[in-house]
Amino acid sequence: MGQIVGAALVSHHPGLMQDDDFRVRMGDGADSDLVPGFDRLRAHIDAVKPDTFILFDTHWFTTGYHLVDAGAHYRGEYISDEMPWYLHGQRYDYAGDPVLARLIETVAVEQGVMSKAIAAPTLPRHYATINVVNKLCRGERVVTVSTCQNCQPRHYLESGRVIGEAIRRSEARVVLLASGALSHKFNEIDWVQKHPRIYHETNVSRPENVVRDKEAIALLQQGRHDLILEQWDAKFRPLPWEGFGAHYLQMVAALGGADCRARGTPCSDYENARGTGNVQMWFDVNPKD
């Protein structure tokens, strides 16, 4: 019987893939804390020994279906069409888990959820997957899940419940990776930096987004996913979170939805990236106490 052994909210922004000297210059003499945050996350991952990551990708926008990547292996070199001058030359080489991906589709069909498994060698990669794989993967299989853009929050929760059931029917030890930011409103192209340290929260696009992001982080630390879901439409959806919050909603639904009480441990400072609010956070789904 398979199980979810851990979960994480993970930042993937392109600045994290730049060289150390550049990041330190942008940080007014100090690096982004999200970078060592990957090492802190990896320590938690090592402790639970997964064989598979299910990664919720807030850049893989699909229409009509939640898609699950059923490819057996991916190898190549990534360049971003969004910012090719900034994010390029990212080599990747990782295995998928076609058996688990197909099982997710089987459960979706049983439950009447619009989800399909797709296996195509030419299926494009997105940096919400590639950056996280290159920072965190140490040989684990990776199954990427899309953000279906014509969905309401309930649809993401349905997708996550399907994934949780499929994992239980499998033989996999899975860590869920919700790849994306919290609030995700970019600063304008001619925005003037407010704080010399670009990563500082003062540079997040709106003060009210910082307030809401920190409120969410506090609730995540308490394991009060029920309150986040209860207040989703009123407080968090309007910001909005990256990818409609699909990464978080699918992750938490796989963990039990409103019944989930997995407490979040921040593995980095809360930081700005182009106006968006980012944090690395680990969720211990099987606490000892």
TrEMBL record:
A Pfam family assignment: LigB
Keywords, ordered alphabetically: Dioxygenase, Oxidoreductase
Keyword Oxidoreductase: yes
Gene Ontology MF annotations: ferrous iron binding; oxidoreductase activity, acting on single donors with incorporation of molecular oxygen, incorporation of two atoms of oxygen
All residue ranges annotated as the Extradiol ring-cleavage dioxygenase class III enzyme subunit B domain in the record: 7-257
Oxidoreductase keyword on record: yes
InterPro entries: Xdiol_dOase_suB
Protein name according to UniProt: Extradiol ring-cleavage dioxygenase
